Amino acid sequence: GAGVSQSPRYKVAKRGQDVALRCDPISGHVSLFWYQQALGQGPEFLTYFQNEAQLDKSGLPSDRFFAERPEGSVSTLKIQRTQQEDSAVYLCASNSLNEQFFGPGTRLTVL
Amino acid sequence: EDQVTQSPEALRLQEGESSSLNCSYTVSGLRGLFWYRQDPGKGPEFLFTLYSAGEEKEKERLKATLTKKESFLHITAPKPEDSATYLCAVRDNDYKLSFGAGTTVTVRA
Question: How many beta-carbon contacts under 8 Å exist across A and B?
Fold first, then answer.
């Protein structure tokens, strides 16, 4: 497809489980972003990659959150030992010039 | 730290009833103000980017304007398909967007 894709679309985890969320950006897009969107709120910046380099991870809420993009295309956001406060929609976006294209998001529910 | 405040939180309109959404911002050096539309269960969809005070952009029934402190999104003669949450975001560097909480617009036929 031509857009940003994310998988899974929905994830239910028990508290304490580790989860991995995948993002496939638009082909050729150098920049990739992860955002967290709580219910009724706007997206909050988590981290930014340029190719395989993670240039900004200032938005990651704790050291339980880890993101990687080893080959400069697909990215994975990993959350270790999930907590209930991690429940949110996780959005991935890739950048072309001045426009960020967003994927549909992964809705994570931690029970 | 960048701050973006959108008002109202929710807006209910009759079809054809024009209105405006407000986005007030505080940023150290604006390098773009962005408007997105978000439908339930979907990611934000890009609408406009504005860069300088006085700039205006239009797309179908939507028109975005920018001043030094705020931006407005005007919806002219809305239709039910314009129902969505409209998000405003600012950028103060080369990449990071700071979003407001959004305005949820409902247009009744």
Answer: 49
The DSSP letter of residue B102 is -
- Answer whether residue B95 shows pLDDT above 90: no
Instruction: Calculate Rg over the CA atoms of chain A.
Output: 13
State whether residue A98 sits within 8 Å of chain B by CB.
yes
Q: Which residues of chain A have pLDDT under 70?
A: 1
What is the model's pLDDT at position A97?
74
List of chain A residues whose C-beta atoms are within 8 Å of the C-beta of residue B46: 99-101
User: What's the residue count for chain B?
Assistant: 109
The reported pLDDT for the residue numbered A1 is 53
Q: Which residues contact B63 (CB under 8 A, 6 or more apart)?
A: B56, B57, B73, B74, B76
AA letter at B29: G
DSSP characters for B51-88?
A: -STT-EEEETTEEEEE-SSEEEEEE-S--GGG-EEEEE
